Amino acid sequence: MSAAITPSPAPVKPILSVNNVEVIYDHVILVLKGVSVTVPRGGIVAILGANGAGKTTTLKAISNLLKAERGEVTKGNIEFEGERVDTMSPNELVKRGCIQVMEGRHCFGHLNIEENLLTGAFTRRDGNAAIKRDMEKVYDYFPRLQQRKLSMAGYTSGGEQQMCAIGRALMSKPKMILLDEPSMGLAPQIVEEIFEIVKDLNAKEGVSFLIAEQNTNMALKYATYGYIMETGRIVMDGEAKSLRENEDVKEFYLGVSEGAKKSFRDVKYYKRRKRWLA
């Protein structure tokens, strides 16, 4: 009698799929050129690159905020939980559980911290008791916010404003957060504290993260997978560990190189020989 064959488990679908997306501003400026990014459910994925590489535009294409800046997705498609979302409005996407934390924090400066957090629950319809429970959960993750909850957000520190922006996103009960340049303008110890909280939210709450970040070293420390962008294209991707060990990534993004120190002229010449630009 032959042994029963156990069927293979069905592959887990990613929570987010960006498929060959092209973005144009003002009907003429091509910014993204065939960008494809996948975020597994419960994953932390980083988009890395210098200022102007296209990281923020990628996040705004996902969150449908391009139209406010006269941009549009002209090719490709974006799927969230298996459903095409690039034609939806931003608030529809938030209701489905995908929310962006903008670069520069963007707190409401004239509101206090607690009022800012409550604005994140604007789309919810599950009652005040549930919102209060989630507020306490945010304070558990960000004890500093509880200490400053009655302070005007505009008078708090940059780190506290970034925590407030992430906490506000959590109040919408997200399945996924698009986090844009969380380290910008912050002291290294604050950056590490915020990334540790991101790690906890991912592990304990199951929130998936797509992080656009210039601080490659910090991002690859916490992400499981990374994409490197240059001039609107994905030029390299892989597991975070393999990217950290890649010699090109070390030299151009981590500031580490093997062998003798190169002069600036040598570095300029070598940059023209990047494998992905060949």
- Uncertain spans: 260-265
Instruction: Return the structural class.
Output: alpha/beta
Determine the number of helices (DSSP H or I, runs of at least 4 residues).
11
Distance between the termini: 58 Å
The count of strands amounts to: 10
Using only C-alpha atoms, the radius of gyration works out to 20 Å
- The protein's oligomeric status is single chain
Whole-number average pLDDT?
A: 86
Query: Could you estimate the helical fraction of the residues in percent?
Result: 25-40%
User: Rough shape?
Assistant: globular
- Sheet-strand content, in percent, reads 15-25%
Q: Order of strands across the biggest sheet?
A: 6-7-8-3-9-10
Order of helices and strands: EEEHEEHEHHHHEHEHEEHHH
Main β sheet profile: 6 strands, mixed
Keyword list:
single chain, 278 residues, alpha/beta, six-stranded mixed beta sheet, four-stranded antiparallel beta sheet, 11 helices, 36% helix, globular
